[in-house]
Specification:
Oligomer: single chain
Order of helices and strands: HEHEHEEEHHHEHHHHHHHH
Number of domains: 2
Strand order of the largest sheet: 5-2-1-6
Number of strands: 6
Distance between the termini: 35 Å
Structural class: alpha+beta
Radius of gyration: 23 Å
Shape: elongated
């Protein structure tokens, strides 16, 4: 593991060079510009390590600015030039070159453009349809970002609006995840094994784990990240962090007859773990071990009739 992670490097770089630059060259904007590290890089989540340094890893930070109606293009260009002139190397990392109109993960970014790219809206206000269809990995990125400076609330306002999934949306997504767990794990995996179709059995186990991971995040009230970070993020959750090993076993072990029986038992045990949490959160009224029945029971708890009456997989 690297001694200092990318987030710390970014914060130190901003405090040593970025903040003085704003105060000295743009004093009238220092209270209206937000600075931080938010985006898709592993350093934004605190997940970076030595492997992360093989690409897109640099000393840098984001300067989020108001829309063009407030900060004109000339001022924006001056700010981009000032950022580009900051020291090119810091704590052993080099800052990448920026073209005059940006385009990097770091540098000067209009806040409304940033939110529009991540959510489809410039202010973090989403419709029901957008909540149902927006990739959760985008929301995960926004939830993990760190602000170093935001006196005006330029970024913190929209980020706050996007930090918690509406309950009816959470329940719709959870109902879909539970149904997929039932179909792939409790039903299809067993049938694929009986047919000795080990390839299909592997796919069924993978579908069960994928849906179960989604259910883990939803039951924690958290957003699920891009697939390569799902196991890493699972370890940080208050609930279900202990499931990383059984999930890994289900997708990495063979599907011969003997191992398959062990996996069938494990799938049922995991179903019991999830059902217990559904009951703890009082979002199911089913009283059996069938995840499909619990999926429809969770869907029945949705308050908004239009959302409740959508297909159970509408948010998956």
């Amino acid at each position: 593991m690297i001694a200092v992670n990318g987030l710390e490097i970014s914060r130190n770089y901003f405090e040593e060079f970025g903040l003085p630059m704003l105060q000295e060259q743009f004093p009238e904007w220092a209270d209206r510009i937000a600075a931080g590290l938010i985006g898709s890089g592993s350093e934004c989540f605190g997940y970076d390590d030595e492997v992360s340094r093989d690409h897109d890893f640099e000393a840098g930070f984001c300067l989020f600015i108001p829309g063009e109606e407030e900060m004109d293009r000339q001022t924006t260009f001056r700010l981009e030039r000032a950022y580009a002139k900051l020291p090119g190397e810091f704590m052993g990392l080099r800052k990448s070159r920026l073209d005059p109109v940006g385009g990097s993960r770091h540098g000067v970014i209009r806040a409304d453009d940033f939110f529009r790219e991540k959510t489809g809206t410039p202010d973090g206000i989403l419709t029901v349809g957008q909540w149902l269809t927006l990739p959760e990995q985008n929301l995960f990125e926004l939830s993990k970002g760190t602000l170093f400076l935001d006196r005006s609330g330029l970024m913190s306002g929209p980020l706050s609006r996007l930090s918690v999934m509406p309950e009816d949306i959470r329940l719709k997504k959870l109902a879909g995840a539970l149904l997929l767990m039932a179909q792939a794990g409790q039903y299809n995996y067993r049938r694929c094994v009986r047919r000795a179709d080990t390839g299909a059995a592997a796919l069924a186990a993978g579908e069960f784990v994928r849906a179960a991971l989604h259910a883990c995040f939803l039951l924690n009230g958290a957003f699920m990240p891009y697939y390569k970070w799902q196991f890493r993020a699972l370890r940080d959750l208050p609930l279900f962090s202990e499931l990383t090993e059984p999930f890994s076993f289900l997708i990495s072990s063979p599907n011969d007859a003997e191992t398959a029986e062990e996996k069938i038992t494990l799938i049922e045990d995991l179903a019991g773990v999830f059902i217990a949490e559904l009951m703890e959160q009082e979002i199911t009224k089913a009283t059996c071990g069938d995840l499909e029945k619990h999926a429809y029971s969770v869907n029945d708890q949705i308050q908004d009739g239009e959302i409740r009456n959508l297909h159970i997989l509408a948010a998956i």
